[in-house]
Amino acid sequence: MRNYMSASPEQNNLQAEIPAVSRPEDRAAAQERRKAYPYRFPRDARQLSGRFSVAENARRLLRYFYFERRLMQALGAWTLSIREFEVKLETGRHLFFHADAARQLRERLSEQEMRPKEIDQFRDAEIDRFIDEMLSAADAPELLVGIHQVVGRSLETAYRHHVDQTDPVADAPTLRVLRRILVDYEPMLAWAEAAIAAYVAGGIDESRLASWRWHLQRVLGSIGGVTGVEARNAEPSPMRIAEKPFERGTAPLRDARFDTFKHTGDYDRADGEARFPADSYEGLRLRFIRTQRDEVDAIEAFGTFIWDIRFKDFQAEYDLARITWDEARHTEIGHRALLAAGYDPFELRNRLTGSTCRGPMEPAFAMAEINLFGEVGVLKTINGLIDTARQRDDALLVHIADFIRSDERTHVRKGQHILKCMTSLGAQELELRTRELFTECLVSLGAVKPDMDVFTVSREDLEHLVGE
């Protein structure tokens, strides 16, 4: 990237001493033409100004980009380990907000003569150390404190200051990017404040959260804050990562409102008896809606994939983040559809089968299990379900299934690129190995008979058991 530097004070003084060569007759003629011009458009009050050269602007934007990318990855790493339903949903949403902020900053940096490959290869060991310490949160409340109250608030402040300090005319594209990012930041940070207050009201020790907040603020201060130019303090001691490096969780967690099961993928078997006759429309309808609510496990799956393949390919990370947000929306759709159908969503047991299997799996096989079996399985059946719903004038199911079908088509398409970033295995070998691993897990959970093998568990059986 070119190193554009601001003019020195001597150069500025020299420029200021160059007189304008203005001819009185030209100026008078210009004034007459202006008087005769009939339109009085709104005045643009912006002035040439700004503290940052192109080089300094890019240095800061690259640092912002890296923070946003790391926050996307960090939230993904915690998706399995968050218990509370609402927090897991918002994490799936916020994860994409950070991914989209990184994408916009990356695009702006590429306009300032940085190649995308150069941007994607950028690493900062100090920021990485901060992120690792933040990830060492003891629980979800501490995670929210770090992600939102420490880093999120600091980035919001840095973005607003950057908007105020950069040239509003020459650097207008950067202003637009930062203002668009701030549109997501406002509701995200407001939600986090309310969520942390809810944790405290529900019994979480506020002093513990305050202590962790202070600790992380000092860690961030030790690296010069999010801009890297703030006065530095000494790194606090002890650091949690010095005692135990962060490792992402592998077990799906649910809060106390859920009654869960993992020994089967069949809702009727889990419930003890069928609510509707086998293969009836009513039964298929309820299964579809419950499956959407239970896509809370897909938030966990795609979130952990982001962490597991971090830095391999930015586009793959971004696509995974978007799919994670989609799955959070599907979960919300299912939850609200159950309410609209007359159920208390928490009276219906939550299926952990798929997430329990995927959590410890290598990411390529876990991704293949969803993409090759789950999402493809949905697309095989959803058209017929929508047609039947229309015939029965079931407006609720038609409405939600139409949106879900659109999303799943996109997921199948994007999944092919993501899988190529995860593995070099051919399609047939990948599918066979995925079937083997998932079948082994189902056997261990009691979801299928121990004497069955990959050749007796059909593709259709797996699609049904995955249930995405």
Properties at a glance:
468 residues; mainly alpha; Ferritin; 2 domains; 1% strand
Strand content: under 5%
The main sheet orders its strands as: 1-2
Per CATH, which architecture of the largest domain? Up-down Bundle
What's the mean pLDDT score?
91
User: Radius of gyration in whole Å, from Cα?
Assistant: 27 Å
Query: Stretches where pLDDT falls below 50 for ≥5 residues?
Result: 1-11
CA distance, first residue to last residue: 45 Å
Under CATH, the topology of the largest domain can be stated as: Heme Oxygenase, Chain A
Number of β-strand runs: 2
Tell me the major beta sheet.
2 strands, parallel
The coarse silhouette is globular
Give the count of helical stretches: 19
Structural class: mainly alpha
* The number of domains: 2
> Which CATH top level class of the largest domain fits?
Mainly Alpha
Order of helices and strands: HHHHHHHHHHEHHHHEHHHHH
Binned, the helix content reads: 55-70%
Structure description:
The protein is mainly alpha-helical and 468 residues long. The chain has two domains: 54-241, Up-down Bundle (Ferritin), CATH 1.20.1260.10; 260-466, Heme Oxygenase, Chain A, CATH 1.20.910. The protein is 67% helix and 1% strand. The chain contains 19 helices and two strands. A two-stranded parallel ribbon has the order 1-2. The longest helix has 30 residues, at 172-201. It is globular and about 95 Å long. The model is unreliable at 1-11 (pLDDT under 50).
